Amino acid sequence: MKRMTDRQLRSAFNAAGLRLTRQRLLICRELAGRYDHPDVEHLYRAVKPRMRQMSLFTVYRTMNALESAGMAWRVATWKGHARYDGNVETHAHFLCEKCGRIDNVAAHDACREMASQAQKCVEGSVRRVEMMIVGECVACQTAAAGA
Amino acid sequence: MKRMTDRQLRSAFNAAGLRLTRQRLLICRELAGRYDHPDVEHLYRAVKPRMRQMSLFTVYRTMNALESAGMAWRVATWKGHARYDGNVETHAHFLCEKCGRIDNVAAHDACREMASQAQKCVEGSVRRVEMMIVGECVACQTAAAGA
DNA sequence: TTATGTGCAAAGGGTTTGCCTATAC
DNA sequence: GTATAGGCAAACCCTTTGCACATAA
């Protein structure tokens, strides 16, 4: 999600037919400030201390709403957990299969190529493009070598 | 999975420390003959009539084994179902968010670019690259327009 | 022969849904 | 004021695991 004032965020929500509640505002702010592509559980744990009555269910529902509105992307599933990204522009990720770490990747050329080609390659409509490099991160490689 | 004789398939399994059982053979053959990226349930339904004692659990375990061995890829998750592909070369997919249809996509240039760049873009090791175009297929667009 | 895989049942765990209350518009 | 969202609990459903038996090597 791009840097937005509360007012801009409210407009974005309303344009999507959604209301901007205090819970949703807090979740959006948390997601926008993160680059680790958190799952629902992590978002909940980060946000709960700042709002006592925040519930895990609300985070689930908020993420579904954001995804439907195109304001956030479900970028991967790791060990059954959905992982989210507030950055809704075509960009690539690296997923470590061992620890689940997801990094942004600067594969600009490939992303440009894919973004520009996507619509020509398919019959239907294109909503977004996901590019993921799957492997093992350095930390896990080091740990495995040491063990 | 490439076209293989039973003998070649057995060698591939054994090289991965796996045994080629009648169940696994049947599942592999089914997966190799499909281009719709089936989930476990669909594989099971296709294979069950040809082997009475085949169990759903075995399909789950077989797919996990194939994935670990790099003989099949879990290419997407749709509505909580893991979807599999026997073709383990870098290629792109189109996923229809409405109906879950997954097609192969001929985005050769982008795939080549991504495959050649991937290792340069990340610190860790690269196991595979997934490229997915997400949108709505023509059938669903038509259905929506007609409704 | 012996480690590996299968079948079954039951548990596990992330996610969704129904209902009532609270709140954004 | 009214439709929408939150809170809670219970249900859902895909998937995994433990154990005894079967089987590939």
How are the secondary structure elements laid out?
The structure is a homodimer of 147-residue chains.
Chain A: H1 6-15, H2 22-32, H3 40-47, H4 56-68, E1 73-78, E2 81-85, E3 92-96, E4 102-105, H5 108-121, E5 125-136, H6 138-146
Parallel strand pairs in A: 3-5
Antiparallel strand pairs in A: 1-2, 3-4
The structure holds a DNA duplex (25 and 25 nucleotides).
Number of strands of chain A: 5
Spatially, the strands of the biggest sheet of chain A line up as: 4-3-5
Sheet with the most strands of chain A? 3 strands, mixed
Largest interface: A-B, 35 and 35 residues
Domain module tally of chain A: 2
CATH architecture of the largest domain in chain A, by name, is Orthogonal Bundle
CATH superfamily caption of the largest domain in chain A: Winged helix-like DNA-binding domain superfamily/Winged helix DNA-binding domain
The CATH class of the largest domain in chain A, by name, is: Mainly Alpha
Number of helices of chain A: 6
Please state the structural category of chain A. alpha+beta
Rg calculated over all Cα atoms of chain A: 17 Å
Shape of chain A: globular
What sequence of helices (H) and strands (E) makes up the elements of chain A?
Answer: HHHHEEEEHEH
